[in-house]
Specification:
This protein is mostly helical. It has helices at residues 3-27, 35-44, 64-73, 77-81, 85-123, 126-135, 137-140, 160-170, 184-189, 215-261, and strands at 263-274, 277-288. The chain has 10 helices and 2 strands, in the order ααααααααααββ. Helix 3 runs antiparallel to helix 10 (215-261).
Length: 290
């Protein structure tokens, strides 16, 4: 029991003397302080007893909105403030789990991205892709004249602008144009669409159908898919962080309201009849909510 409750009991025990002291001062009757005899005297002389108005101190009352703000900033803090320690630990643990998950899987995604990009740089070549495309224009789209496109520069490197024009003119399955080297879309397209399959170093350059894909193409696609899976888990964990903050804030408000309503104490003096006699009896009403 808290110190406040001990104080209330002291007030409770002292109430009769307070009451009858007031009677003495008002009516000049010689009261003894004995509850039974003084009650009888009061009733016989039609005395009106002024029952003191007891106001209980409620300084320990918590603020629900403050608790909600605490948990919105850090889950579990509002529950700790409202002395709901078990729930505080649960929300704090959930926060640690989702934050750790987001960080770990984002790091895994970054590492996997570096890995598959390195694999692409070592095994896929834009010059090989461009040369195979030029060599097989008649099989892809016979209406396109390769002489209209200067795909290779004098130094042997690929002119991406000219290559993109050729890709756009071919159509017939060449549904995309290759982004600049190093671009995120560059690494996505070369392992996603069959038109880029013959840029891989294990592709058979004598193939006439670009739909024939190589083992490296398939492996690279799987490795890129792993990176996306890691990033998806990280993204979901980040959403979980926001949800945990919101739920904890709502629960902190609810827990604080419960804390404030947990203990209700009321004190009063009742006029009760015992064997045909009226007596003034101090009473205490103690309610504990679970």
């Amino acid at each position: 029991m808290k110190i406040k409750n001990y104080i209330l009991l002291i007030i409770f025990l002292g109430t009769p003397s307070i009451i009858f002291s007031q009677i003495n001062e008002t009516n000049n009757y010689a009261l003894t302080g004995n509850l039974k005899s003084d009650s009888k005297l009061v009733l016989e002389n039609n005395l009106t007893v002024q029952v003191p108005n007891i106001v209980l101190d409620n300084s320990n009352k918590k603020k629900p909105m403050l608790a909600g703000l605490f948990s919105l900033i850090f889950p579990g803090a509002g529950e700790f403030y409202s002395e709901s320690y078990l729930k505080a630990g649960i929300f704090a643990a959930l926060e640690a789990i989702v934050v750790t998950t987001a960080i770990v899987y984002n790091k895994k995604g970054d590492d996997q991205t570096t890995s598959f990009e390195n694999f692409a740089n070592q095994n896929w070549d834009v010059k090989r892709y461009a040369q195979w495309t030029i060599n097989n224009i008649n099989n892809i789209n016979p209406s396109v004249d390769p002489n209209n496109f200067n795909v290779f520069k004098n130094d042997g490197s690929v002119d991406f602008s000219e290559l993109n024009k050729l890709e756009g003119a071919l159509g017939s399955g060449y549904s995309h144009i290759l982004p600049p080297f190093g671009d995120q879309q560059y690494y996505e397209l070369i392992g996603k669409y069959p038109q880029y399959s013959h840029g891989w170093n294990d592709a058979n350059q004598s193939d006439t159908d670009f739909h024939i894909i190589s083992p490296n193409f398939l492996f690279y696609s799987g490795e890129r898919g792993k990176a996306n899976d890691y990033y998806n888990i990280s993204d979901k964990a980040i959403i979980g962080i926001y949800i945990n903050h919101l739920l904890s804030a709502i629960d902190a408000i609810w827990s604080t309201n419960n804390y404030n309503e947990n203990l209700v104490v009321k004190m009063k003096v009742e006029n009760l009849q015992f064997a045909g006699k009226n007596e003034l009896v101090p009473t205490i009403d103690l309610k504990i909510h679970f």
